[in-house]
Design brief:
The chain is mainly beta. The protein has a two-stranded antiparallel ribbon. A two-stranded antiparallel ribbon has the order 2-3. A two-stranded antiparallel ribbon has the order 4-7. A hairpin with a 4-residue loop joins strand 5 and strand 6. The relative contact order is 0.19.
Length: about 100
């Protein structure tokens, strides 16, 4: 995004400031090489519309919040288990997403 061409214009300037002024670019460093399936020299880029016709494109979901189980009493201590679950990412509008690996 910061590569400058021979005219002194960066890719970010061309995309955001000139072509699509309402576009927002968010960098996620955690979505790097390990997220792309273990490629050794690959980077991942995803572009998606956050909302189309009032429906979110992507969201995260959880089965429930934090569940506290019963307290287990022992002769010298007590412990209590906690659990929760997650479904991960829910893609409601996959056609609103473009992904490129190996850039």
């Amino acid at each position: 995004m910061t590569y400058t061409n021979s005219f002194g214009i960066t890719l970010e300037d061309m995309l955001v400031k000139q072509s699509w002024p309402n576009m927002e670019i968010v960098f996620l460093p955690e979505a790097g090489v390990t997220m792309s399936g273990g490629y050794t020299s690959a980077n991942v880029m995803q572009m998606f519309a956050p909302e189309i016709d009032g429906v979110e494109t992507v969201s995260t979901a959880f089965t429930e919040k934090l569940t506290m189980h019963r307290i287990e009493q022992y002769s010298t201590n007590a412990r209590q288990k906690m659990s929760r679950g997650g479904w991960g990412t829910i893609w409601k509008r996959p056609m609103a997403v473009a992904q490129m690996v190996g850039i």
